Amino acid sequence: MTNRAPKRRHAKGVDLSRYGYFFIAPFFLIYLVFQAYPLLNTIYLAFQKYMITGTNKVVGPTFVGLANFKNVLVKGSTLQAFENTAVMWLINFVPQILLALLLAKWFTDTRLKIRGQGAFKVMIYMPNIITAASISVLFYSLFAYPQGPVNSLLAQLGVIDKALYADSGTAALTAIFFLEKGWHTRLIISFINFWMWYGHTMIVLIAGMLGISPSLFEAAEVDGASPNQIFTRITLPLLKPILLYTLITSLIGGMQMYDIPQMMQMQGSPAKTMTMTVTMYIMELVYTGTKDYGRGAAVSVLLFLVTAVLSIILFYVMRDRDAARERKAMRKARKEARA
Questions:
Q1: How far apart are CA 285 and CA 297, in angstroms?
Q2: Number of C-alpha atoms within 13 angstroms, CB side, residue 64?
Q3: Less Cβ around it within 10 Å: N or C end of the chain?
Q4: Can you give the residue ranges of every domain in the chain?
């Protein structure tokens, strides 16, 4: 017979073990109501014709199969929105990860002995704790048209005609309308995202580098390895899991980009076609004009699928090839042993 551990009971003999379920129940209830149900409902609506017209007439829900997906891919602005989102994410993420790696390398290099590291880290991380709305309002004011701080600086540097700009009546003739030009607005949005998040990425990479055993670096120095060789041959390979985490989280956040481009977009601006992200397009489908919940849900499902596929590709590309080869060799050895 097996000895079973007795259930924990109160001094008076009351069984208390079941009360643990009451403590974890709130999490599952909140998850089911606010995450699981909306997710399943979105997938359901993606296959339905369901909308509210401008006269508040409810149409549907009626099952239409893949019609919503065909509609948003052929007739809608879905592909343009995905292109805009991808371009703005790449423009901000590539310099972000490079600068974060450089700063993390400097701050973790014991030979440099940078003084005041704590103050530098706080200042670099500071933009990340400011709300996106506040930063958007700040940059919206900086690039104001016709007479804003950036245009004033350009006039002082002689980039635009200083004499025309000095007169409020003719300033519009020479000032640059940054928020009306597609690529200008794209670059501004990308820079804001880069400025907000490179400090966060740096902190994550520093944590990863500090987790590497110092004995590896000491052994490499004894063997005569240069700092660049140590970084490329030891630090980066061992930092791969942290880099993968950074890539995946940045990809997910970038594909859901909404608040900054929405607030930097001027009403009626022609730059909209080059700055409208996927989430902005979803909000437009669902909350403006004819509220088309079916098409909005279809774009949401496409966003989920694209993000999932890109994440899987990143996992595959950045996998540990040595470990994969070892597992493959072990499986092969087991098969041969069984044979």
A1: 9
A2: 18
A3: N
A4: 56-130+182-317
Instruction: Please check whether residue 286 is in contact with residue 279, taking contact to mean a CB–CB distance below 8 angstroms.
Output: no
For residue 136, which of 292, 260, 8, 265 has the smallest C-alpha distance? 260
DSSP state of 265: P
List, for residues 239-254, the tens digit of each pLDDT value: 888 999 999 999 999 9
Indicate the DSSP class of residue 288.
S
Kindly report the pTM of this predicted structure. Answer: 0.80
What was the pLDDT predicted at 339? Answer: 63
Q: How far is CA 143 from the centre of its chain?
A: 25
| Neighbour order of strands in the sheet with 48-52 | 58-63, 48-52, 291-292
pLDDT in tens, 137-160: 888 888 888 778 888 888 888 888
- Residue 10's CB is within 10 A of a number of other CB atoms, namely 8
What number does CATH give the domain 56-130+182-317? 1.10.3720.10
| Rounded-to-integer distance, Cα 164 and Cα 167, Å | 6
Q: Cα torsion at 245, 249, 255, 261 (round to 10°)?
A: -130
User: Each residue of 214-270: pLDDT tens digit?
Assistant: 888 888 888 888 878 888 888 888 888 899 999 999 999 999 988 888 888 766 677
End-to-end CA distance of the chain: 39
Residue 191, exposed/middle/buried by CB under 10 A (0-12, 13-18, 19+)?
A: middle
- CA separation for the pair 118, 158 (Å, rounded): 39
